Structures are given as C-alpha cells and as structure tokens.
Write the structure tokens for this entry.
Amino acid sequence: MYFITFEGIDQSGKSTQLKLLAGSATTAGIDTLSVREPGGTPLGEQIREILLGPEHANMDAWTEALLYAAARVQLVKEVVKPALMQGKIVLSDRYIDSSLVYQGIARGLGIDRVLDLNLGATGGLMPDLTFVFHLGVAASRERLAGRDTAEDRIEGEPLPFHEKVEAGYRQLEEMYPGRIAGIDAGGSIEEVHARVVAVCHERLGLEL
Ligand code: TYD
C-alpha cells in the first residue's frame, strides 16, 4: 500500500521509531512488513558483510555505491514490491536517500549520478513518505561512544564525513519537501513517536 522509509545519521533513533510505528500499525489492524538496508535477502546480507566489515578499507566510492544499489535491487524485487502488491505497508530502515547522502554527497559522487543509478536499478521505486530523523553530529557521536559494539566501516569515518551526512539530509529535505518529513529526534522515544504518527496522519491519512 505505502512505502515508508526511515533515514538519519547513525544513532538517530530511526530503527527504534520504525519498530514503534510497525507496532502501532499492527494494533490498528494494518498489515506491515519491516526491512532494513543493506540486507534483507540472502544475497543482500552477503553484500552487507562486504560493505560494513572492516576488511575493505580501500573500497572505492563507486564500488560502494554499486554494492548498496545491488543489495537494494534484490530487496525491492524479492521483498518490497511483492509486499506492496499484497497491500502491505512496507517500512524500510534506510533506502535510496542513504545512497544519495552517503555516496552522492559525503563521498562526493554527485546526487544526480547516484540517483540515476538507483532509479535504473530499482525500476524507479521511490518511497511515498520518508522520515529524516535529525540528531546533531555531536549527539550521534556521543551515543556511538556509549555503545558497546564495535564501529562498522562507515561509522568509523572521521567527523567531517558525518557532518556532510547530516547537512546532506537537510539538503535532500529541501529538494523533496513533498516526500521527506524532517523529524526532531530530540526528546523521549514516545514524544518522537507521536511526531511520526502525526505526520503519517497528515500526509497519508493513516489513523494510527
Ligand atoms: P547499519 O548497521 O544498518 O546502521 P544504521 O543503524 O546506522 O542504519 O549500517 C548501515 C550503514 O551503511 C550506515 O552507516 C549507512 C550506510 N549506508 C550507505 O552508506 N549507503 C546506503 O545506501 C545505505 C543503505 C547505508
């Protein structure tokens, strides 16, 4: 039915908010499917290991963009499109906007070129609604430091990279105001959830 994506810098709380929204939808009797990128298919999970593991410190930015797109194609064809056809709401933890921001802006490949690649690969599937959770870079780094798991290859990038990511999301929000809703990720989990539910109501007419 609707394809809703969740975006933001690391530790912005988007995954928690995705789960909460899925729970609210289920309670309201709406069928949902939750996925995450990169991954969500057997092939995609293998690509995820290549992308996020520490082995490939010398990975070229285009290799990175192509691998994210490759995992995405499998997910769209095997999982997302079939679920949408069945009338489900599909919630995705990251999608095309992550590539536009991380590879297009932060790695400098160019938004247009990365968008073209991804539109071709996915058959042009764009989200109906995208949430971008805004948490300053400093707060994100603080939350990362407090976590006990090791940083992945992208999280380990230096600070200016993450600053470009945060600024990149704001740039996308200005480019696509009809599709992207910026959400203040500050406050309690429940407060942020209420903001998400309100936007679902305003933009898609969902009663959650
Ligand atoms: P993940 O462990 O799923 O982290 P998060 O909870 O932040 O989503 O790691 C995904 C990482 O991959 C994250 O640092 C962002 C990056 N990424 C890209 O660079 N491009 C993309 O297209 C996608 C989907 C993710």
